[in-house]
Design goal:
6-stranded antiparallel β-sheet, binds zinc ion, 172 residues, alpha+beta, 4 helices, Peptide Deformylase
């Protein structure tokens, strides 16, 4: 996308204030990017808008259990001022980001989320599978975390490549 500076991408975003922040246009633009680039999600900071909001693709409605009344579901879910709590097992997965980063992350299989829609209505749900992964990726963006920031696993992979894989290769 090339729309955000590196400094913006490392910024912890501010809460959306529905009194003063005009989020409609930003959310439309994020949805447009998701369609155009076939993304799993897109967040405010990726377009240089440093507010706590993102849009994820609603890939499988069966992956959502609503604890509140469900919103009118579209092919995407817009989450404003989200809170995300990780649940269940963690597994490593290789992710890439449209803005040009990629790397391994540990992701939880399930997340509990509370968020607001673009009108400020509040929702609560449990999401799992790929949807939970999209939510964790985009939520990280709101805290200035990119997929290449997860150092421990990268160190382990480097160690494996430098130490373990030559041993494995030597035996073959
Ligand atoms: Zn990303």
């Amino acid at each position: 996308m090339g729309l955000a500076t590196l400094e913006q991408l490392h910024t912890i975003c501010e809460e959306v204030d529905f009194e003063t922040d005009k989020v409609y246009g930003k959310v439309d633009y994020l949805k447009e990017l998701i369609r155009k680039y076939d993304l799993g999600g897109a967040s405010g900071p990726e377009i240089g808008y440093l507010k706590r909001l993102f849009v994820v693709v609603n890939d499988k409605p069966a992956n959502i259990t609503w604890f509140s009344e469900a919103p009118t579901l579209e092919d995407t879910i817009t989450m404003v001022n989200p809170e995300v709590r990780l649940q269940g097992v963690r597994y490593p997965i290789y992710e890439s980001c449209q803005i040009g980063y990629s790397g391994f992350k540990l992701r939880a299989y399930k997340v509990n989320v509370t968020f607001q829609d673009i009108d400020g209505n509040e929702f609560q749900a449990e999401m799992k599978g790929r949807l939970a992964q999209f939510v964790q990726h985009e939520f990280d963006h709101l805290n200035g975390i990119l997929v290449n920031n997860f150092k421990p696993l990268q160190r382990l992979i480097r160690w494996y490549r430098s130490v373990a894989s030559p041993i494995v290769n030597a035996k073959n």
